[in-house]
Hints:
By secondary structure, this protein is of the alpha+beta class. The chain is 28% helix and 31% strand. It contains four helices and six strands; from the N terminus they run H-E-H-E-H-E-E-E-H-E. The chain has helices at residues 2-9, 21-29, 40-43, 83-91, and strands at 13-16, 34-39, 52-60, 64-68, 78-82, 101-104. Strand 3 and strand 4 form a beta hairpin.
Amino acid sequence: KKEYYAAVKKKVLIHKRNATIRIIKKYLDNNTPVIAEILHSAFHYRQRRTWDHAVIITGYTQKNLYIHDPDKWEEGRHRKITIKNFIKVWKYLTPQSGRSLFIIENK
């Protein structure tokens, strides 16, 4: 937690809650990947356990997002997900986190 608050204070890390797809695209258009917090069990259908999970969004098309998933079962691979399905797994989080994005500023 200490490192998180220090990074936010220095504006190296930006934490956006209740973010939108438009915000994701804005950062990607500026060659800045974003980290999205999602619900693991909704994203990895075969898993029954539930916890928050983070993926790195690296690109998009009109209908898809391209993500890097560090999950050990996914072997850290890049994958494509429709924007519609991404929104479903993104919105399942608690109201406290609510569509969280983390952006690491390249200064």
